[in-house]
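= Paired protein data =
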Amino acid sequence: MNTVSNTGGGSISASFSSFGSIVPQHFPLRLTASRMIAPSVRHLVFQRDDGDSLSFLPGQFLQVHFHYDDGKPTKRSYSIATVYDGQARPDLPIEMAVSYVSGGAATALFEHLKEGDRVEASGPFGRFCLMPNDQNRRYLLVGTGTGVTPYRAMLPQLAQQIRERGIEVILLFGARTPTELLYADEFAAFAETTPGFRFVPCFSREMPAQPRADDRQGYVQNALAEFQPDPEGDIAYLCGNPNMVDASFEVLKEAGLPVPHIRREKYVSSK
């Protein structure tokens, strides 16, 4: 399963100034729906089970608390995948994408979770968010696997910035095969209805049977150069596999992007 990590579970590798914070809370979540969206990824929909609202910033994450078989408490971190318009309300669905890891303790928890079951959670945490004072002309959003979930949550914010600031957004999403391209239909539909947003899937092992014009073969970090990263106008977000994040970071630094304009969040698998 994926956890947010740099030096440890729940920490974030990022270099940018703070923009205010929402006080984390501890609360129960009740599962209301779920579906498999890839061979080893389950999309889960929860609601707070205490009647309160959850305020968060798109890009933040929650921690799910549970116990190992021996009773030892532990927790895992998951980015909030809810497409969020900024309006907190008690009935707001709280969505996550959970990767299954063979033998993982959290995988055992989520595999057996049924609609109506509860889990304990805390949050929100993290600063992998769009910044209110950004003056860039373009966002380069790069993700692999469930690292694309923060970008799903950001879609309403991105649409607003495209309308109000005239920015461009390119989402480069890496997957091994088409079956592992999470939320692909949603991103493609958003690109079709939102001028200024471009969705570029990158497939490292198997291309679709009928590739789209923006489909690419290879790793996302290798596709970055095609879009000519601009030190003067670009801000980049990198989220997902640590090797991808590191490789993309080097590509962007070599292109001249200032380090504060390369915002990173690494996901690592934990059992």
